[in-house]
Amino acid sequence: MNALTIDIEALKFTWPGRNPFHLSIPKLEIASSETVFLHGASGSGKSTLLSLLGGVLVPQQGRIGILGQELTKLSSIKRDRFRADHLGFLFQQFNLLPYLSVIDNVLLPCRFSKLRRQRALQTEKSLEKSATRLLAELHLDTHLINQKVTELSVGQQQRVAAARAMIGHPELIIADEPTSALDSDRQNAFLDLLLTQCTESHATLLFVSHDQNLASRFSKSLAMADICSGELPKQLDNL
Amino acid sequence: MKTLFLLALHSAWNRKGTLMLMVISIALSVILLLGVEQLRTGVRNGFSQSVSGTDLVIGARTSPVQLMLYAVFRLGDATHNMHWSSFQKIAQRPAIAFAIPISLGDSHHDFPVIGTQSSYFEHFRYGARRTLAFKEGVAFTGIFDAVIGADVAEKLHYQLNTSIILSHGSGEHGHAEHADKPFRVAGILKRTGTPVDRSIHVSLEAIEAIHLDWQGGAPMPGVAIPAQYVSKFNLQPKEITAVLIGLKSRSGVFQMQRYINNFQDEALLAVLPGIALDELWSIVSIVEKSLLAISGLVVAVGLSGLVAVVLAGLGERRRELAVLRALGAGPLLIFLLLSVEGILVVLMGVLLGAAVVLVGSSLAAPWLQDRFGLVVVYTGLTSTAYCLLASVIIGGTLASLIAAYRAYRISLIDGLMPRL
């Protein structure tokens, strides 16, 4: 078994169509249980990289290994399954499905992945207990669990999203600016909780942000500008 | 699959307002479509069932459609009559099972008066070979006895033994009246849903009797024959308007038709009622078909509204779709999610519409029959209606698939980051 969680080699990606954006990463290795801060200005290809890691996009060249599995060799259905089984995603905002309760949102990954359901049941007797425990560890009042997520504050919503990313112990947590919607006090508190949880469950964390002040909290810090080679991105990737 | 339905349901419930509007708009177009179809079938059935068991309709030579119009539907006037002697000749043919003479020309409060014989009540058939039945009273026995249809009795509030006065000529008011010879209602027929309901039946002799002192469509000046003396006159009719005949064997119908069309004494026309009714219907059916086409268009508008609403809503749902993708949902699941939702909306709309039409037509059926003699089927739908519903569902499914395909494309392009 490869000890590397992320193992990228000679990756080249171009958006189809006339969009001139390129992403080229000669090498990127992230070891298991590391907490990695990835810094990049907007337009530097962060989102594209995350979609590539999630197996939603496929590079034209090179290979992406995650947990020893080469994503590029999987079919799109298997990549979706792999993502459901092994990756937890945490976005900037609007992570939650507004029509589900807090607990149903947290348990969503267990609906999509049998593996994560089994893992969640290893430590607790029921999925609900597993979710409740995780929410409690993220300092969310347990009486909120049956509420609609739209009734929660942004900070509470982000903690629910973190619980959802972590339930069933996925090996890799990918967080895309999860703190940018929070004020600085809450940012730190949230980061504490996130890092503690990742360490406890031995998950690898890839934390993407444009806020370099946060870098010191992580075991490793990378910059998009350093890992990418050749021509720099010429355009915003969000076009 | 369970996850899929659960998500689709929850997501739909979250947007129930918009979706209900979509269901209602589809239901409305289905109501229009089915309503038109139900009425169309009712009209068509009522039309083709206005006469049955009659093999040939005979009258003075004219167009088949016109002959049907006055002989069966009692609309308009005959341009020519046929001689009584011709009727007698025809009625005596061995192939004839029955011959019902009909004499038109008078009216009562816009209801046509039919001079005929008692064989009319015996042999006239409508619908599925049903005979005329009396609600009250009996067929005419005396000269001034009348048998009225259900509509006549109801509209004019007539009962047995009500005295009625016939007017000369048909249609509008202002005609001279046969006031000196009042009739007595001897029988009231049960409702048939055919022109019989609107008719007043008297004997041929009565028609003769009320015109004894008339000439050229007006009372003869200075001549008045009181009602009690009419039996002293020869009341055998000289002319009648049409004859309905039934044959002992249907196989002889073309031979009989040929015989009558080549009748020696005068120019006559024999018409097969089924064929003439079809011909008559084909004139009316243009209206019916355009109605159906219009309601088809309404359905198309409803369905394109569905596509438009779903597509417009997709913009707002991009985040939801991206979140589902991040959780491991494949683009195919996104496609299914959207299709299931669209198809459910269409199905609910169709069911709601069909239910409203069935309940509505069962509620409206007595009124429709009462008012227009329209027999609307409300216990079930016609096969055409089922075809229409199926095509709405198929159309709706295709419309949902268009929207779902768009969502599929979006989720492929967006990946995990919705491009807003």
Describe this structure in words.
- The complex is a heterodimer of chains A (239) and B (420).
- Chain A has helices at residues 46-53, 76-86, 102-112, 114-123, 127-137, 154-166, 184-200, 224-227; strands at 4-14, 22-31, 35-39, 61-66, 69-70, 87-90, 172-176, 204-209, 220-223.
- Chain A is an alpha/beta fold and 239 residues long.
- Chain B is an alpha+beta fold.
- Helices cover 52% and strands 16% of the residues of chain B.
- Chain B has helices spanning 2-14, 16-48, 64-71, 84-91, 119-123, 150-156, 204-210, 253-261, 273-326, 331-372, 383-414, and strands at 56-60, 82-83, 96-108, 111-116, 125-126, 130-131, 134-137, 145-148, 163-164, 167-168, 183-189, 200-203, 214-215, 218-219, 239-240, 242-247, 268-271.
- In chain B, the strands form 4 sheets. In chain B, strands 1, 3, 4, 7, 8, 9, 10, 11, 12, 16 and 17 form an 11-stranded mixed beta sheet that branches. Chain B has a two-stranded antiparallel sheet with strand order 2-15. Chain B has a two-stranded antiparallel ribbon with strand order 5-6.
- In chain B, a hairpin with a 2-residue loop joins strand 13 (214-215) and strand 14 (218-219).
- In chain B, helix 1 crosses helix 10.
- The longest helix of chain B has 54 residues, at 273-326.
Characteristic terms for this protein:
heterodimer; A: 239 residues; alpha/beta; five-stranded parallel beta sheet; four-stranded antiparallel beta sheet; 9 strands; disordered C terminus; B: 420 residues; alpha+beta; eleven-stranded mixed beta sheet; two-stranded antiparallel sheet; elongated
What would you say about this model in short?
The complex is a heterodimer of chains A (239) and B (420). With 239 residues, chain A is α/β, with parallel strands linked by helices.
Apparent shape of chain A: globular
Which class best fits the helix and strand makeup of chain A?
alpha/beta
Q: Which chains share the greatest interface? A: A-B, 31 and 23 residues
The side-by-side strand order for the widest beta sheet of chain A comes to 6-7-8-3-9
Specify the oligomeric state. Answer: heterodimer
> pLDDT under 50 segments of chain B (min length 5)?
none
Sketch the topology of chain A as an H/E string, one letter per element: EEEHEEHEHHHHEHEEH
The assigned structural class of chain B equals: alpha+beta
Strand content of chain B: 15-25%
Average predicted local confidence, pLDDT of chain A: 84
- Total strands of chain A: 9
Poorly predicted sequence stretches spanning 5 or more consecutive residues of chain A: 231-239
Q: Determine Rg of chain A (CA atoms, Å).
A: 18 Å
* Helix proportion of chain A: 25-40%
**Outline type of chain B:** elongated
